[in-house]
Write a structure and sequence with these properties.
By secondary structure, the protein is α/β, with parallel strands linked by helices. It contains 18 helices and 25 strands. The strands form four sheets. It has a seven-stranded antiparallel β-sheet with strand order 1-2-3-23-24-22-25, with helices on both faces. Strand 1 and strand 2 form a beta hairpin. It is found in: Plastid, Chloroplast.
Length: 592
């Protein structure tokens, strides 16, 4: 695709690029003062003032300290939904546990200020993820620090239930001594079915194996070898519930898992089964569980989580004598809460700094080494999007965008989600008030009816660099700068990264070479001596600093496109004077 190769002569503050192969056009460029900009993927711009973080539920001290070193921290617990909506418009981040519902109204009330929701724990079923994504708000969680605590609570409930610990305790405190009533059942040799063999489920399984139980598990997504490694057999759902003496639930609450245990599935269980739930109340149909307890299908249940928390005071389930209940205590150990607080504070501070979070729930997780490598291309992608959209003539709606990534690596080695998001950001932000980031890019493009197709062009070069160039084409539009329309009729801009700095290397069919910093003036002119000087002196008279200049031409003394990088925005008067230079046929000023 690219045709010109260039030689570059470098001096401390100046570089010259000379094209050597000129089939379509030639390029000459002068570069002054290369600079770098920090990468901001998630937060609209570096926050000028200290950000404000609302901590809506109790958080461990170590996490609070981390937050306070970076932000104004407002710890306001037990807010009503209305109070939360009122406060949120003054906050850049919100940290919650499972007790706060982060609803669509919360995102709407934030009016775009809320950038990060941190869930200090695993389950994010209390956060409206679709609304967060639509509002470009990153959701991060703390997925690892409370795993052991939850598993230990599961085992505690299992043993307590089997030996009637809670009921016997209440009886003794009521002055009774009922040794015959509270005869329990043994765990050793019994079959435990773990439903959901993720972090908590596998830790429960490991511990139950240590108690001498035969452990089976059902999880459609878990690898069998991980289960086998701890002596657990993965089986079908029906086999698991049909053969278990005990069932322990450890799946997330999703549309697919909601009320997984219901009248129909209870009917398939072994009579006298005992159930532990430290996952989410909603995975059990609670009315059906009461029926199953009453009919004897389920002998006992030990529950830490409920559909409604706290449950209604007259809940038949809670009051049932065969039920042991705890108030969502799975993650509540000193150790887990300190760990969770640190894990979530680090994720929130990182996200507020514009970094990608490893625990992002609604954005692609890009490994840090990939991110480091792609960093200059991410910047290039956004700027190409910005340039391309500014070249569209008013009145032509952008609907069809094609992005080509030229790489010498295998197609699977290039993850383009980040680049596509940044091109989308560049395409949409200059023409709207919407803030686009990695979280909401695809959603925002779809909502605006912009179809972005991608292709990878595989080159025969060295795979050392992830990308050779990126090309952005907008089809079916008119351009404010006719020379930006390629031979095939689309607005076309192409860029490369040179020495870590993004460069514009093609406009329409013209090869140029201008560093993508500051702003750019593109002029089409009849190629002739003195043009750079004429335009340069108009800008110089107004003290507009030229950082880069490049001329791409079809052939000597024919049409050429001059690309000029400027640090300041020239006045309308200067731009008018540039347009009046006799050889200038058209020009456009583009903000980066
Ligand atoms: N009670 C508490 O305080 C407490 C503490 C921590 C975690 N939790 C809850 O425990 C659950 C598990 O947490 P985790 O950290 O192990 O999460 P995890 O993501 O590591 O594991 C969840 C597992 O469930 C599996 N799964 C998904 N759909 C399934 C289905 N239909 N059937 C069977 N398995 C399915 C997944 O493949 C995954 O392996 C979550 O609901 C979490 O919110 C509760
Ligand atoms: O999903 C979780 O991490 C647990 O349910 C813990 O919830 P909590 O933070 O409200 O204790």
């Amino acid at each position: 695709m690219a045709t010109a190769s260039s030689q570059t002569l470098r001096f401390p503050t100046l570089s010259l690029s000379l094209s050597s192969k000129l089939p379509l056009s030639s390029a000459f460029s002068v570069s002054l003062r290369p600079r770098r900009r920090p990468l901001v993927l998630l937060v609209s711009a570096a926050l000028d003032a200290k950000p404000t973080v609302l901590v809506a539920e109790k958080l461990g001290d170590a996490g609070l300290k981390l937050l306070k070193d970076f932000a104004n921290v407002d710890c306001s617990y037990n807010l009503s939904p209305e109070e939360l909506c009122t406060k949120i418009s003054l906050c850049d981040a919100l940290i919650v546990r499972s007790g706060t519902k982060v609803t669509r109204e919360v995102f709407e009330s934030s009016a775009g200020r809320l950038k990060v929701v941190g869930r200090a724990g695993v389950g994010i079923d209390n956060v409206d993820l679709a609304a967060a994504t639509e509002h470009g708000c990153l959701v991060v969680n703390a997925p690892t620090a409370n795993t052991v605590a939850a598993a230990e609570h599961g085992i505690a409930l299992l043993a307590a239930m089997a030996r009637n610990v809670a009921q016997a305790d209440a009886s003794v405190k009521a002055g009774k001594w009922q040794r015959n009533k509270y005869v329990g059942v043994s765990l050793v040799g019994k079959t435990l079915a773990v439903l959901g063999f993720g972090k908590v489920g596998s830790e429960v399984a490991r511990r139950a194996r240590g108690l001498g139980m035969n452990v089976i598990a059902h999880d459609p997504y878990a690898p069998a070898d991980r289960a086998r490694a701890i002596g657990v057999e993965l089986v079908s759902f029906d086999e698991a519930i049909g053969s278990a003496d005990f069932i322990s639930l450890h799946m997330p609450l999703t549309a697919a898992t909601s009320k997984m245990l219901n009248d129909e599935t209870f009917a398939k269980m072994k009579k006298g089964v005992r159930i532990v739930n430290v996952a989410r109340g909603g995975v059990i149909d609670e009315d059906a569980l009461v029926r199953a307890l009453d009919s004897g299908i389920v002998a006992q249940a030990a529950l830490d989580v409920f559909t409604e928390e706290p449950p209604p005071k007259d809940s038949k389930l809670i009051m049932h004598e065969l039920v042991t209940a705890t108030p969502h205590l799975g993650a509540s150990t000193m150790e887990a809460q300190e760990g969770v607080a640190i894990e979530i504070a680090e994720a929130v501070v990182g996200a507020l700094n514009g970094e990608l979070a490893a625990t992002a729930v609604n954005a692609p997780m890009v490994p840090s080494e990939v991110l480091t490598e792609l960093k200059p291309f991410v910047d290039l992608a956004e700027k190409l999007g910005r340039l391309a959209v500014q070249l569209v003539a008013g009145g032509s709606g952008v609907k069809t965008v094609k992005v080509s990534y030229a790489t010498s690596r295998a197609p699977d080695d290039l993850d383009t989600r980040l680049l596509r998001a940044m091109i989308t950001k560049g395409l949409i932000e200059p023409i709207s008030s919407v803030f686009v980031n990695l979280v909401n890019a695809d959603f925002t493009a779809k909502q605006r009816g912009i179809r972005i197709t991608e292709e990878k062009v595989i080159l025969d070069g060295s795979p050392e660099n992830p990308l050779e160039f990126i090309q952005v084409q907008i089809a079916n539009v008119e351009s404010r700068f006719a020379s930006a329309i390629s031979d095939s009729g689309e607005i076309k801009v192409e860029g490369r990264v040179k020495d870590g700095i993004p460069h514009l290397t093609k406009v329409g069919s013209f090869e140029v070479d201008v560093s993508l910093e500051g702003s750019i003036i593109l002029c089409r002119q009849v190629d002739q001596p003195g043009m750079i000087g004429k335009v340069g002196s108009i800008l110089g008279q107004e003290n507009v600093n030229v950082s880069f200049m490049s001329v791409g031409r079809i052939a000597p003394r024919k049409q050429a496109v001059m690309a000029i990088g400027v640090d300041e925005q020239p006045s309308k008067e200067s731009l008018k004077r540039i347009g009046e230079v006799p050889a200038v046929e058209e020009f456009v000023f583009l903000k980066l």
